[in-house]
Design a protein that fits this description.
The structure holds two protein chains of two kinds. Chain A has one domain: TIM Barrel (Alpha-Beta Barrel), CATH 3.20.20. By secondary structure, chain A is α/β, with parallel strands linked by helices. A nine-stranded parallel β-sheet of chain A has the order 5-4-3-2-1-9-8-7-6. In chain A, β1, α2 and β2 form a beta-alpha-beta unit. Chain A is 48% helix and 14% strand. Chain A is globular and about 45 Å long. Helix content of chain B is 44%, strand content 18%. Chain B has 16 helices and 14 strands. The longest helix of chain B has 17 residues. Chain B is globular, with a radius of gyration of 19 Å. Classes of the chains: A alpha/beta, B alpha/beta. At the A-B interface, α3, α5 and β6 of A face α1, α8 and β11 of B. The structure holds pyridoxal-5'-phosphate (PLP). Pyridoxal-5'-phosphate binds next to α5, β9, α11 and α15 of chain B. The site of pyridoxal-5'-phosphate has 22 residues of chain B, from α5, β9, α11 and α15.
Chain lengths: 266, 403
C-alpha cells in the first residue's frame, strides 16, 4: 500500500477527518523548509501538500502567488523541493507528501527523471494544477515509479466527467469547493455538502476538500462530509515573514492545533 | 508546387498541433472550455453566424484591407518589391479587431454578458472594449502595471469606451501576468463571463478560434495577390508576439509550398544579451498558459522576463501552431532587434507616409531583409498589423524628446 492509501485507511479506521496543510516550499524561509514540514506533522498534519514554486501560478490567489515569488526570489526550484523531502524522510517515514504545482517545472526536469528523483526522495503523489486527466499521458513514468497523480474535481465538473475522475482517482480525490482561485473566501458548505456526498458515493478513493478553508470553524463544517480538509492560503499567510525555525514552528502550531482539535471533537 | 502535407488539418480533435497545443488548465475550466469548444465548432460552420461576422467585418471593421505596394521603400532597399497588407487601416488600428468581433459574436450567442481580456500593448484591450461597447457588454481588461505606464493612450481609449482597466502587479507586471490574472477572473466568474483571449495562445479551442478569425487576412491577401499580381508572393512575413497576426496571414499560404514563410520575433537588445522575447528562436518546449509550446524559461522551469521595445511582442510563449510549423520546417522564425524595428519604423514613415506600430515595424524590418535576398521582380508580402499612433510617446522618449 502506498503511504497515502495507508494513511487514509488508518484515518477511516479511527473515524477521524484528515488534516492536510499546504505550504509553499521554501517559504517563509528556505533554510527551515524541512523543519517546517516536521512542525506541520507535530501540529497534527496527516499529509503534507508541498507547493513547488512557479512563476505563473494561474490558479492561485495573491497569498500563494506572493509566497511563490518570495521562494523563487531565493532561488528555490524543484530540485530543492525534492532534496527537502528526502531530508524529511530521514526522520519521518510515515507522513505522506504530495507535491502540488504546475507542469512546466516538471516538464523541464524531464518526466522520467522527475519520476525517479521524486520516488527516491520519498514523494508519494503529485497534484498538478494545470494537468487535467486528458493531458496526463505525460505522467505515465510517475505512475510507473509508484507515485500517485492526485486529481481535482470542481463544482463545474460535469456529471459524466465526474464519474471518469472518480474512477481514475488514486490516493485521494481533491474536491475544489468553489469555482475560483486559492485563498478566496467564498465557501458555502451547504452548496458543496450535497456534491461531495455524491462524489464520495462514486469515488473509491477518499475525498479531500480544499479552497476556502481558513480556520477551525470552516474546517469543522467541511469535516462533516469529507475525508480530509486542505488548508493552504490562510496558513501560508500566517507563516509569511517568520524567519527563525522556532517562530515558524510556533506559528504553524498556533494555527493548526485548534483546527486539529476541532476536527477531533466527535 | 504542392505542400508535403496538409497543414490545414490542424488542430486535431484534442486541440493539438502535432506535439503542441492541448488544454493544460485547472479542472474548474474544463467545463467552460468544453462548452466553448462545442459552441465554437458549431458556429464556425453556421451560415448565419458566418454571414453576421462577414457583415461586421465589412461595415464595422472596414474589410477588406488593401495590399499596398510600398514602391519607395522597395526602391530604397533595392531588392524585391515589398507589399504591405494594411491591417493598420482596420477600425481601432490593428488586426486585433478581426478576432474580438468574432469572439464577441460567439459570446453573444452563448448568452454571456460580461467579457474580459488581457492586453499588452493595449491594442487587444481597445479592440475588446470596442466590441463590448458595440454589443452592450460589460468589459474588464487586465493589463500589466508596466504596460499601463508605457501605453497610456490606449488605457485612456479603453476607459473612453466604457471598459474597466485593472492593473496587474504580480510577476513581471506585463502581458503574461495579465493573462494569468484574466484566467483567475475567468475561473472565478465562469458562469456569466466570456474570456476574449487576444492571441493564438491559451488552451484549446483558443489557438484555433483566434486563428480562424484572423485567417481572413491571409485569405484576402491570397486572392488579392492572384487578382492584382497574377501570382502568389515569393515570401511572406509578419511579426510574432503570441502569433495571431502572423498565423492570420500565414494560414492561407501554408499549403502553397512555393511561398516562403518567415515570422519575425522580438530580439530586443539581441538574442545573445538575454533581453529579448524570441520564444521560438531561443526558447524550448514547455507548458504555459494552457498549452504546450515554445517557452522562454530557465532550467528550473520558471518563465523568464522578456524584453522588447514593443509591448505587444513582450510575451515569453507563442501560439502552439507556430511551434508546430517551426518543427515541421514549414515556417522560419527569426529575431529582429529593437534597433532594427525602430529603423524600419522611421524608414517606412519617411518613404511611404505610414506610421507603423512598433510590433509591425519588426515585420517591416524583416521584409526589408528578405527583399535584399531576392531580385527586383520578386514579391515580399508583409503584414502591417497595426498603426503606430499608440507608440509615438515611446519612440519620442527613446529619442530623448519630451512631448
Ligand atoms: C499591432 C500589433 N501587432 C502585433 C501584435 C502582436 O500580437 P500577435 O503576435 O498575436 O499578432 C500586437 C499585440 O498587441 C499588436 O498590437
Amino acid at each position: 500500500m502506498n503511504r497515502i492509501e495507508s494513511r487514509f485507511f488508518r484515518l477511516q479506521q479511527a473515524g477521524r477527518t484528515g488534516l492536510i496543510p499546504f505550504v509553499t516550499a521554501g517559504d517563509p524561509a528556505p533554510e527551515h523548509a524541512v523543519a517546517l514540514m516536521h512542525a506541520l506533522v507535530a501540529a497534527g498534519a496527516d499529509l503534507i501538500e508541498l507547493g513547488v514554486p512557479f512563476s505563473d501560478p494561474m490558479a492561485d490567489g495573491p497569498v500563494i502567488q506572493h509566497a511563490s515569488e518570495r521562494a523563487i526570489a531565493r532561488g528555490v526550484g524543484l530540485g530543492d523541493v525534492l532534496r527537502w523531502v528526502a531530508q524529511f524522510r530521514q526522520h519521518d517515514a510515515d507522513t505522506p507528501v504530495v507535491l502540488m504545482g504546475y507542469l512546466n517545472p516538471i516538464e523541464l526536469h524531464g518526466y522520467a527523471r522527475f519520476a525517479q528523483d521524486a520516488a527516491k526522495a520519498g514523494v508519494d503523489g503529485v497534484l498538478i494544477v494545470d494537468c487535467p486527466l486528458e493531458e496526463s499521458a505525460v505522467l505515465e513514468p510517475l505512475r510507473a515509479a509508484g507515485l500517485q497523480q492526485i486529481l481535482l474535481a470542481a463544482p463545474t465538473t460535469a456529471p459524466a466527467r465526474m464519474v471518469k475522475l472518480c474512477e481514475a482517482a488514486r490516493g485521494f480525490l481533491y474536491y475544489v469547493s468553489f469555482a475560483g482561485i486559492t485563498g478566496a473566501a467564498r465557501l458555502s458548505t451547504a452548496d458543496i455538502a450535497a456534491r461531495v456526498a455524491e462524489v464520495r458515493a462514486v469515488a473509491k478513493a477518499p475525498v479531500a476538500v480544499g479552497f476556502g478553508v481558513r480556520d477551525a470553524a470552516s474546517a469543522k463544517a467541511i469535516a462533516g462530509f469529507a475525508d480530509a480538509v486542505v488548508i493552504g492560503s490562510a496558513l501560508v499567510e500566517r507563516l509569511a515573514g517568520a524567519t527563525e525555525a522556532d517562530e515558524i514552528a510556533a506559528r504553524a502550531h498556533a494555527f493548526l492545533a485548534p483546527i486539529r482539535a476541532a476536527l477531533d471533537v466527535p | 508546387m504542392p505542400a508535403t502535407q496538409d497543414f490545414h488539418r490542424w488542430p486535431d480533435a484534442h486541440g493539438r498541433f502535432g506535439a503542441y497545443g492541448g488544454s493544460y488548465v485547472a479542472e474548474t475550466l474544463m467545463a467552460p472550455l468544453a462548452e466553448l469548444t462545442e459552441a465554437y465548432q458549431r458556429l464556425r460552420q453556421d451560415p448565419d453566424f458566418l454571414a453576421e461576422l462577414d457583415r461586421d467585418l465589412k461595415y464595422y471593421v472596414g474589410r477588406p484591407s488593401p495590399i499596398y505596394h510600398a514602391e519607395r521603400l522597395s526602391q530604397h532597399v533595392g531588392g524585391a518589391q515589398i507589399l504591405l497588407k494594411r491591417e493598420d487601416l482596420n477600425h481601432t488600428g490593428a488586426h486585433k479587431i478581426n478576432n474580438t468581433i468574432g469572439q464577441a459574436l460567439v459570446a453573444r450567442r452563448m448568452g454571456k454578458r460580461r467579457v474580459i481580456a488581457e492586453t499588452g500593448a493595449g491594442q487587444h484591450g481597445v479592440a475588446s472594449a470596442t466590441v463590448a461597447a458595440r454589443f452592450g457588454m460589460k468589459c474588464v481588461v487586465y493589463m500589466g502595471a508596466v504596460d499601463i505606464e508605457r501605453q497610456k493612450i490606449n488605457v485612456y481609449r479603453m476607459k473612453l469606451l466604457g471598459a474597466e482597466v485593472v492593473p496587474v502587479t504580480s510577476g513581471s507586471k506585463t502581458l503574461k501576468d495579465a493573462l494569468n490574472e484574466a484566467m483567475r477572473d475567468w475561473v472565478t466568474n465562469v458562469a456569466d463571463t466570456f474570456y476574449i483571449i487576444g492571441t493564438v495562445a491559451g488552451p484549446h479551442p483558443y489557438p484555433q478560434m483566434v486563428r480562424d478569425f484572423n485567417a481572413i487576412v491571409g485569405r484576402e491577401a491570397r486572392e488579392q495577390m492572384l487578382e492584382g499580381y497574377g501570382r502568389l508572393p515569393d515570401a511572406i512575413t509578419a511579426c510574432v508576439g503570441g502569433g495571431s497576426n502572423a498565423i492570420g496571414l500565414f494560414h492561407a499560404f501554408l499549403n502553397d509550398a512555393g511561398v516562403r514563410i518567415v515570422g519575425a520575433e522580438a530580439a530586443g537588445e539581441g538574442i545573445a544579451t538575454g533581453r529579448h522575447a524570441a520564444s521560438l528562436a531561443a526558447g524550448r518546449p514547455g507548458v504555459l498558459h494552457g498549452n504546450r509550446t515554445y517557452v522562454l524559461c530557465d532550467d528550473k522551469g520558471q518563465v523568464t522576463e522578456t524584453h522588447s521595445v514593443s509591448a505587444g511582442l513582450d510575451y515569453p510563449g507563442v501560439g502552439p501552431e507556430h511551434a508546430f510549423l517551426k518543427d515541421a520546417g514549414r515556417a522560419e522564425y527569426v529575431g529582429v532587434t529593437d534597433d532594427e524595428a525602430l529603423e524600419a519604423f522611421h524608414l517606412l514613415a519617411r518613404t511611404e507616409g505610414i506610421l507603423a506600430a512598433l510590433e509591425s515595424s519588426h515585420a517591416v524590418a524583416q521584409a526589408m531583409k528578405l527583399a535584399r535576398e531576392y531580385p527586383k521582380d520578386a514579391l515580399v508580402l508583409c503584414n502591417l498589423s497595426g498603426r503606430g499612433d499608440k507608440d509615438v510617446h515611446t519612440i519620442a522618449a527613446r529619442e530623448g524628446i519630451t512631448l
